Amino acid sequence: xxxxxxxxxxxxxxxxxxxxxxxALTIQSDLGTSPFDALLVGLSINLGLTxxxxxIIIAFIxxxxxxxxxxxxxxxxxLLTAFITGVSIDIWLFLLHNLITPELWFxxxxxxxxxxxxxxxxxxxxxxxxxxxxxxxxxxLIIKELTRTNILFxxxxxxxxxxxxxxxxxxxxGIGTLLTVCLGGLILNYFMPFTERVLGNILTNSSTPSxxxxxxxHSI
Length: 220
Known about the structure:
The protein has one domain (2-205). It is built from nine helices and no strands. By secondary structure, it is mainly alpha-helical.
């Protein structure tokens, strides 16, 4: 069980790092970001603080909203996840600031599309560890259950709501934002069953004791 827990936490961190790397790529593409990230960038530009800091602040608000929707205690661990995510976003943006600055539209589009796919993969990986989802992803799952639909519908609905908020705060909205609304939920919906199979095998193998451990336990 210890090996399985270690594997789960390792996959959780890996998923967050992949997710935030994708977010940083979409921001650096300068084609517009997801509606949620556009809101964070807009708040950062107009009100100050870093993009990661606003990730944490908005996460706290969403935790309260999620608690009201499911009528349960707030998921405090979700704030920890948001903190790790916010810090990771700021670190990736710092590292990529001078490394990835595409100027031609083709490279911008390639940078954005790669980022969008990476976001879907990272989100699917860390969600399957079932360890305190980022509040906006928890909201996605809550709406999916309440409406009895799928990830595609709930994700697209949330994107539309945050798109309106991003427009209010003058966030970086562009063709990339439209692509995210149209493709973000679809990509996540594609990766969820794929990562479920792969991560299920990884976690199952990690829970199987090695021959050394089995021999040791037998000798005891």
